[in-house]
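anyone seen this seq b4? input:
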Amino acid sequence: MNRPKPLEAVLMATPDDTEAQFYESLQRADLDRLMAVWADEEDVACVHPGGPRLVGTHAIRTAFEELFGQGHIDTRPAQVRRMTLGNTAVHHVLEEVRVNTADGPRSGYVLSTNVYLKTPLGWRMIVHHASPGTPRELQELTESTTTLH
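predicted toks r here
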């Protein structure tokens, strides 16, 4: 019989492993597995689209527990840009979010930044910051402009 590994035995050897577990946990509404992704640091932070900054694992757990009370979150990375420097990795993610509506299934997009830290237990999330996107996939702008903001 195949039993799932205990959460503490799940090695997230790369930032991509951690990110995969994060999105799988959202799709399964698996709060314990989702919280295993987070570093055990008091300043970890999470911002949901249009929401306040949640600081600390207790605040993050409470918010996801509330969200999962409404069901799973059908979201997955559609595009990822990655940067790694030493023990820190930053992923800029275009997330596709699927919801069922009265008119049938719909997709929208969320822009997220996920920051990971390499710890003795493997790579762990320290920041997830999600901003509202659009109903359609965004086109990436890569040309330089002369305006800073």
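The CA atoms of residues 112 and 130 lie 4 Å apart. The first strand starts at residue 45 and ends at 47. kinda curious what u guys think
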